[in-house]
Design a protein that fits this description.
6 strands; 13 helices; 48% helix
C-alpha cells in the first residue's frame, strides 16, 4: 500500500474512534504512554496528527517508563522524542526486579507487570497535570482479549476505548481500537520507528499467542473475521444473553450474574488448573488487591 494511503487509513480509523467514543476533548492534557513498541510509536504519531487537525484543542505529553529490564537502552527513544518535538519524560523505576520476585514459579509476569505500569502511569499523569492516559491497544488486541476472557475466564469483556479509573481522577483512552495490527506493521516500515521490544512479555502469554494464531488461521478463510468480532462487541443483543444484569427479562428478578446451567460456579473461570493470574492478566480491568500491593512498591 502506498504510504500516503496507509497514513490516511490509520488517521481515518483514529478519527472515527474519536467520534464514536469522544476521546479527544477541548482542554484535555493527554499522557501518551510510550512503551517503545510499534503501537506506542503509531499512537503518538496519530494523536499528534489529529491534534493539529481537530477543532478542539488539547495538549499531549509523551511518557516512557524504564522498568529496569536487562539491556534496555532508552537513548534511541530519547533522541526520537527530542526530534519529534513534544514534551516528554523518561522515568526509571525498577519494576522488573519486583515483578520477577513477586511472580510465583510457573505463573505469567503480565498480571504484576501491568499493575505496576498502570499505577506509575496514573502517578505520572497527575504529575504532568494530565486528565487522560492514551494507550496503544489496537483492534487485534481488543479481539484477542475478548476471546481470552471468553475461553479462559468465562466472561464476555475486552479493553474499552475509554475507561475511568477506580478513583475517577484519570481516564484511559485507546485511540487505535479501529486500527488493524497489519497496518501498524506497515507504518513502522514506512516511518522507521526505533522499536524497543519487551523481552519480559515475549517469552510468556502462551494463551494469547494461541488465540492470535487461531485468528490468523481463521482469517485465511474469513479475511474480515477480526473486524466482524470487533463489530460484535458494539452490537450486543440484550435479550439474547444469559447475564442477568443485562437481559431485561432477568434483571428485574436477580442482579447477580447467571451461572450457565450444568456448571458449578467454581467451574466458571480459568481452565488452567485454577491459575488465578490468568483472570487478572486477561481482564484489562482494575483489581483492588493488586493495586493495594503495587502502591506499596512504587515511588511516590
Amino acid at each position: 500500500m502506498h504510504p500516503r494511503k496507509l497514513e490516511s487509513r490509520i488517521l481515518k480509523a483514529v478519527n472515527l474512534a474519536n467520534r464514536d467514543f469522544n476521546l479527544f476533548e477541548a482542554g484535555d492534557r493527554i499522557l501518551v504512554a510510550m512503551s517503545g513498541g510499534k503501537d506506542s510509536f503509531a499512537l503518538l504519531w496519530a494523536i499528534s496528527r489529529l491534534q493539529a487537525a481537530l477543532p478542539q484543542k488539547f495538549e499531549i505529553v509523551a511518557y516512557h517508563l524504564d522498568q529496569g529490564q536487562p539491556g534496555h537502552n532508552v537513548k534511541p527513544l530519547e533522541q526520537y522524542l527530542k526530534e519529534f518535538g513534544v514534551p516528554f519524560e523518561i522515568e526509571f523505576q525498577d519494576t522488573y526486579s519486583r515483578v520477577i520476585k513477586m511472580t510465583e514459579p510457573g505463573k505469567v509476569f503480565c498480571a504484576w507487570c501491568s499493575r505496576f505500569r498502570r499505577a506509575i502511569l496514573y502517578k505520572a499523569a497527575r504529575k504532568h497535570g494530565c486528565n487522560k492516559v492514551a494507550l496503544g491497544h489496537h483492534r487485534d488486541d481488543l479481539v484477542e482479549t475478548f476471546l481470552l476472557n471468553a475461553f479462559f475466564t468465562g466472561q464476555l469483556k475486552t479493553m474499552p476505548p475509554r475507561l475511568v479509573s477506580d478513583k475517577g481522577a484519570e481516564q484511559v483512552i485507546r485511540p487505535l481500537v479501529y486500527v488493524g495490527e497489519e497496518d501498524l506493521f506497515e507504518l513502522v516500515k514506512h516511518k522507521e520507528f526505533p522499536i524497543m521490544p519487551c523481552s519480559l512479555c515475549s517469552s510468556q502469554n502462551k494463551e494469547r499467542k494461541a488465540v492470535k494464531q487461531l485468528l490468523t488461521d481463521l482469517s485465511q478463510k474469513y479475511p474480515r473475521i477480526r473486524t466482524s468480532i470487533l463489530a460484535a462487541l458494539g452490537r450486543i443483543r440484550k435479550t439474547h444473553v444469559l447475564d442477568k444484569t443485562i437481559n431485561p427479562l432477568f434483571s428485574q428478578n436477580d442482579s447477580e450474574t447467571l451461572t450457565p446451567t450444568g456448571l458449578d460456579s467454581d467451574e466458571v473461570g480459568c481452565i488452567k488448573d485454577g491459575n488465578s493470574d490468568c483472570k487478572k492478566s486477561c481482564s484489562g480491568d482494575n483489581d483492588t488487591d493488586f493495586d493495594r500491593v503495587v502502591s506499596q512498591h512504587i515511588k511516590s
